């Protein structure tokens, strides 16, 4: 049954109906449409459109339908209805009769589909976050087991300088982390409820849209009905995020395809992600990676297609917007499948360490190091660069690497070169000297690997009301130990927006709060980590999180009152005098049980932003 037939003397012909109907693909929104309908039934009950018994009857029918849909979601697609909204209404009429027809009061398919799609996107974003995390973990596992393996680094596909294979892995961990961050940002922006905006002008019933948003898990209700029903920015953002991530996966796939080639021979791919040739029995083709590389274009195509669909649409809703779903559904499916393939490939590959090291030593990869050696002897870099170019020419003609050239040959071009040059030209020396932050030295790579592994285990986020119990336990523990000031549960509830927490495997293991005084002064309170946790680094990550928040608030100076100065010194804090602390902050010390024997030290951190101050009282 169509939801709009009364205006028409005749129904659509078969060709138009097939062209128009969206149920064959929007059936995946069945659970979301039912969930939204349950919230709308409650809203109609509150404004008197439905009485208590009617609302209860509809809720029971919707719950039954939800169970049926979950048992066989594919059956919905062949229901023969125009769209998922028509399907749900027809199914409800079959269960409760004409009562089901009251449910659409004050509601439009326009705000329904906008709500359904946001709910679906929010759910799928969570699934994709886990897939991104799994691929990152596979890269970290490879980096850990091959942390001493050296490979040639390339520019222009020419051997440039040697790098650790772990450094290569961590480069893609960084890319995927940006993908994860973008996905989270997009999810935060889409998490607003359009339900109750009607077709375009809002609803005529005094429903509480904020209550509806809360019931559906949205952060708030949208603010403009015209925009709400026609906004598909969130779909574009998600497709853009998917496209960027697929570009990253495509680049990773290309690297591995080359590393697996006979010409490189750095790795061998496992049988479960490769295939053979129908003609050449010796072949082992990297099909999984080639498909990842190819499917990136498919996802980018979905993004481009939707942008062209939206570019000239007038407000508000237009049927063109039905084209937002197939590309999004396909892109998310493709993205998730590609992440799974890359994860499986990384988990199964083996590395030929000898071939990697031999190749890293070739191609005159130590030429820059020879130039740096000359700079250390007082030669300007530009001159050193020219001299090394001459020496490389000679080495090529002699068919030998730079490190095998005689000292006399070196000195003929640059007399400052001495016997110690050979110590500079070894592979280990090349790596060790790349010790600046972000470099490929073993020390820096080990630090980066450790930090990335911690990041995988620890999530730092703003606290919410469900964290109250865990925060209270942490505060009470450290207050009992005399390290933090005690705080009542009501105080924590009222100031929950000030708290940040660390989460390990879904459990809150650390907390801290940022309190802002009326003067603009800020103080970090209640910093503590569960003493039973085996995951290290949570205190450091909480401090970093709060420093970032301080920068966003345009604070200038961070002050620490602490008994663990070594910890804060490692984070860049420096000692300062307690005399520099404002009197208002020092007055708060009067309730501290250790006031008479205070052994806290004051430290400061400058954020290079104007005006305000930040105070820490903590245990890490």
Distance between the termini: 63 Å
By DSSP (H or I, 4+ residues per run), the number of helices equals: 25
Q: Summarize model confidence as the mean pLDDT.
A: 91
- Structural class, judged by helices and strands? alpha+beta
Radius of gyration, rounded? 31 Å
Largest sheet: 8 strands, mixed
Binned, the helix content reads 40-55%
Q: Tell me what portion of residues adopts beta-strand conformation.
A: 5-15%
Account of the protein in words:
There is one protein chain. The chain is of the alpha+beta class and 620 residues long. It is 54% helix and 12% strand. It is built from 25 helices and 14 strands. The strands form four sheets. An eight-stranded mixed beta sheet has the order 7-8-9-10-14-11-13-12. The chain has a two-stranded antiparallel ribbon with strand order 1-2. Strands 3-4 form a two-stranded parallel ribbon. Strand 9 and strand 10 form a beta hairpin. The longest helix is centred in the first third of the chain and has 37 residues. The chain starts with 13 loop residues before the first helix and ends with a strand. The relative contact order is 0.07. The mean pLDDT is 91.
